[in-house]
UniProtKB/TrEMBL annotation, chain B:
Pfam families: BPD_transp_1. This is Molybdenum transport system permease. GO terms for molecular function: molybdate ion transmembrane transporter activity. It is found in: Cell inner membrane; Cell membrane. Part of the binding-protein-dependent transport system for molybdenum; probably responsible for the translocation of the substrate across the membrane. The keyword rRNA-binding does not apply. The chain crosses the membrane at residues 13-35, 47-70, 90-108, 149-171, 197-218. It is a multi-pass membrane protein. Residues 11-217 form the ABC transmembrane type-1 domain. Its main location: membrane. GO terms for cellular component: plasma membrane. The keyword Phosphoprotein does not apply. Belongs to the binding-protein-dependent transport system permease family. CysTW subfamily.
Amino acid sequence: MTAAATLNSAIIADFSVRLPGSKHEAGSFDLRVDERLPGAGVTVVFGASGCGKTTLLRALAGLQPIESGYLRVKGETWHDEKESLPAHRRPVGYVFQEASLFEHLTAAGNLEFARKRAAATVNEQEVQDVIALLGLGDLLQQRPQQLSGGERQRLSIARSLLIKPELLLMDEPLAALDQTRKQEILPYLDRIRAELKIPMIYVTHALDEVTRLADHLMILSQGRVRACGPIREVLARIDVPGILGEEAGAIVEGRVTERDSEWHLIRVDFEGGQLWLRDSGEAMGQQLRVRTLARDISLSLEADQASSILNRLPAEVAAIAEDADPAMALVQLLVGAPGETRLVARISRRSVAQLALSPGKPVWAQIKSVAVLY
Amino acid sequence: MGFSAADWAAISLSLQLAAVTTLILLMLGTPLAWWLARTRSRLKGPVASIVALPLVLPPTVLGFYLLVAMGPNGPIGGLTQSLGLGSLPFTFWGLVVGSVCYSMPFVVQPLQNSFASIGERPLEMAATLRAGPWDRFLHVVLPLARPGFLSASVLGFAHTLGEFGVVLMIGGNIPGQTRVLSVQIYDHVEALDYGQAHWLAGAMVLFSFLVLLFLYSIPARRGDAGLRFSA
């Protein structure tokens, strides 16, 4: 893809939004964004509540006025100094946190509301496809009040797809659901990501919920973008201390290359190394994305064979940074000879001193646990 | 016994007055209630107070000022005369103007409560589903506010039907033109014709009871806030 084509398919957001102080909070809040988001795949916007992530989505959708700046989506100007496209002219699908449905319409009526107003004609087959994609076939005649939380959210996602959006905005669609319901929705999100080529911006305060979905990650804090980029890069960074907290930890992508049926393990090869994981029936050759939380990686100077830790990787210290917690430090590691893969370990500052860790020093990374994302 | 011809004329006039008034009030009251429900303007308080004034003012006070305003030297009177419509007091249309003012809060408040209870979310949701402002109003607000419209219409109608003080002040007692039900009852009592008065008064009690029974038996739904202010 040429640079111009990339520009034309990207979401270019350079704007600020100001919210007047409400009765409950003193002062006003402002959000400042200057980022280029990819016009494909899933971008997760992560931040604590009140960081401005919902405001960002609302500004993208046109529900929140932009104070200054511009917004271009796939080559179309949605907002600049001269004009601002009103919300109803922007081809965005918006999924609200608490599954807002039209209570005066049936499930089918809710879908029809969107279909009639779609940017392009939606034929019957496409409607059926969306209904099937979100498993709504049996619910169409129900009223929203009769649906469970998970069903409501699926209906609301289906409805947002039926306007044929060029951009899908999701505002913590799982936050209001319990754990079981979340697990009920996640496969559908996977399917949307895999089957529809609609770029998605997904806002959440629970990173683990969506690390498997995300291609891109933006970290927001107090109305400012702290990090933004491909999720593997952002999660391997150590210069955004504290924001991720206990969630800090890098992502590794690899392929299943061996199955050890005696010990029920599989081997995943990634650029620069390999990991042994518990065998959950993954197919040989299957692509896997796994996450190693920084707090689950410890470092030693020797290959300590007499340990229960299954995965020990030779690595090199790339950088050391302070954690928000004064007792802790974040250590970025390069794994493998050319250093293609980066991991992050969170260890005590005393250990950093005792091991005399500094950039360039070879260490062994002991990985206590690995979470398979997909 | 039963209703006399004059009673029937009064009943028919009252029904016409109530119907016309309710229709006009729905047309004026809907945008006004919408504005009151959503504005953050500093004028909201004063406007809401003016709309609510007939709730607390003696009808004679309201009628007195309307009479003055509609008179040949008043602002409304001047306007109607320059438009060639003649003078409004002691006419049916004078009563309509009076009733519109008098019953305004009974239509505006249920609508306003109903609009307010819909909240911002359904409108935002509709906007992201590509519905423009009119589309949103027609296909989201109106259906969601239906209980409010029902309460507003019934209350506006019933309240106008029972109007007395304002009518007497600006309409007088002209048979077939301004002699409405309540005035007819007053006349019967003045003439010590309690029997006739009973028939009409009893009919009014029954009608009002049935109207309220109907309103209170509407299943309570989100958006139905019709009687909150008066009950």
